[in-house]
Amino acid sequence: MMKRFTGWHMATILIAFFGVVVSVNVVMARLAVGTFGGTVVANSYVASQEFNGWLHKARAQEALGWQAKASLDADRHVLVEARDAASSPLDGARISLTAAHPLGRIPPVALSFAAQGRGTYRSVESLPEGRWQGRLELYHAGKSFRSMEQFQ
Prior knowledge:
Elements: H1 7-35, H2 44-64, E1 67-72, E2 77-83, E3 94-100, E4 109-117, E5 120-126, E6 132-140, E7 143-151
Antiparallel strand pairs: 1-2, 2-5, 3-4, 3-6, 4-5, 6-7
């Protein structure tokens, strides 16, 4: 003989179901907030208004034909090789790099560079262990070049 299905049974099922749903939502929300590294842009409306200007700058940079390759040496100093459109070394350039942790948990590190000759530059400071995204900026003869670099 089976027991009767009563309102108490239904109430228990509903409470258990919604308890699981709410618990999962709370866990997922805490994980999402705990791993968010910060804002991408401070104001998306202002960023959308500046987008065409960014495109213009990107096209101007592309027209320069400059190339800059960044890598880490054994001591975790950043090495940058800068070349012009004809693949000639860009000597006398001013280079800076701001390295940021991808999740924003470690403060950004600003690196300055010293010329090594033949278009090669070495950072004065070393980059701490870990994974980094670097915003490389190169200035030469009144023109500028920017790129994003990955270091590990």
